[in-house]
Amino acid sequence: MLRSLPSFAGLIIVLALVAFGISTLRAEAFPFREFVEGDPVPDVILQSLADPNKTVSFSGLKGTAFAAVFWGADLPEKIEHSASALRAVEDLAPFLRERNIRLLSVNAQGDGAADIDRVRKLADSRAEVYLDRDNTAYATLGLFVLPTVLLVDRNGRAAAGFGYSRDLQDRLRGAIEIMLGEKTPEQVEAELRPEMREPTAEEKAARRHLDFALVMLKRGQLDAAARELVRAVEIDPGLPEVHLRLSCTYLSLDRLDLAEEAIGKAPVIDPASPLAHCRGELLRRKGQLAQAEKDITAILEANPAHYNAVYTLGRIHEDQERFEEAAFAYKKAYELVLRHSVAGE
Question: Per-residue DSSP letters for 24-47?
Fold first, then answer.
């Protein structure tokens, strides 16, 4: 009998995956036992950590869409994942505000004040924390795992729910777009999991030069890296990220003219790119401090955890002789670097 257990367990897992479906937007199992997607969410009452006399209830939020992040801090791995989940959701703050979606940060395990504070600091969380006193919400909702995100629509129905994953932010954004009718599930799925395409010969060749450039950069051989990057964009000019990396490399070589020429060929810069700050740094080096600050501020509005941009902002403030603000930015950049290091990012 014991020998049959592994195969029996495997059968159960297969059946569970078939029943729930495996998709990008849903976890392998909906992380709540007491309801499913589309159902009215059971009512719970949560207490504010900052003000014990202040509470919020799910029924009281009816008419307002909200995303609730349930998290715990009883284990090192859970602390790390809880901080990452909070950070991922809070980085969507502008996106949430534009769509009038409220964010709830819920400690669902009755953790001590020190552990709660540790998660908040690690996540750089500004969201008000609510407590699940006596684990009533945990039981009422039937939570499977922590951290978990629950998205509820204006009618009080569960629009989506999923546990921690590295693509949590993208999954939540997609679930919100589907909930609001901005995109179809198929559109979101295609964006999150684009079809694989065989790269062209030019793309492959450019990639080889880019890869070699990255090796040279790690070795500190900036001139060699710049030559490889130039070769990459000569072969395939349609690579904005390579133009940006070339500009950053020229900045390190103090070749401002070439840095400006390279960055001019990458007009669209993703704020999430670790190199997004380079245009602001170029403007700072040229003495255009007001424009540099505006450029970096725009990056940080879209991506508050961009530590390179925060550091560049500190340098801008220092050049402006705004020394207290510069010190604050440098400290913030240091904290963000540590946080990303702890999270393994």
Answer: SSS-SS-SBSS--TTSBPPP-EEE
